[in-house]
Model the fold of this input.
Amino acid sequence: MKNIVILTGAGISAESGLATFRGSDGLWDNYKVEDVASIEGFEKNPELVHTFYNNLFLKVQKAEPNEAHLAITKFQQERKDLQIDVVTQNVDLLHEKAKSENIYHIHGRIDECVCLNCGHIEKRKGDFHFNMPCKKCGQINVLKPNIVFFGEMPMYMDKVEKMLQQCDVFIAVGTSGVVYPAAGFVQTAKYYGAKTYLFNLDNTENNFFFDKQILGKAGETLPEFLADLSKK
Ligand code: OAD
Ligand code: ZN
Done:
């Protein structure tokens, strides 16, 4: 065992009080996905999109990592001899707060904006508005939350593809497996020989390529599993 990939989704942050996307009190409930998470929605009403992510940032800032995030950090600290990568679909910063390493935000991060004119990435201090000038090129009406919308390619895909091909163990945590390409990662990992595990609250249909599915709250199931894996 040398390389481990841990793919996380909204479910890993549920116990930290952040709503998942497709749960009953899901994040989209008061908004339409196509309004706040698509390129077309952003073009139609950019300020509405900024308001949505400004509010989400406030919630994210207050959230603390839970036992599942912390277990990943502990595993990384115990096994410095392994390459343990955290590929997250989450735009929250709970893996960072838990002090994990090798984190790849493939769907972007809530604390950044990107300038559509010059590509400059700006860290968030408070709210972003569409009419704020870019700090680098000075243009207005060019700032977009640095979040991957439907219709855009996720980030770090080349790097992640290599990780999937090389990993010995692939662990997905708290993800419904309906949003591609992340939903297809398990298939690649398994094809190249990895053992594959899924930690979700409830049974997901899209679990065909997982060797084992562990149901329950990730904060309760993941720490024990990683502690065992750490001894191997
Ligand atoms: P979903 O909301 O689709 O799925 C959450 C998953 O977490 C479900 O399978 C639940 O069973 C599971 N879950 C809930 N609570 C849990 C807990 N306490 N412990 C373990 N599992 C739990 O979220 P994602 O799969 O992350 O994209 O959604 C993928 C993408 O859809 C998101 O990254 C987002 C959205 O479009 C962007 O924002 C770009
Ligand atoms: Zn710019």
Observations:
- The beta strands are 3-8, 83-88, 103-105, 108-115, 121-123, 143-147, 169-173, 195-200, 212-215.
- Residues 75 and 226 are 6 Å apart (CA to CA).
- The chain has a mean pLDDT of 95.
- The longest strand covers residues 108-115.
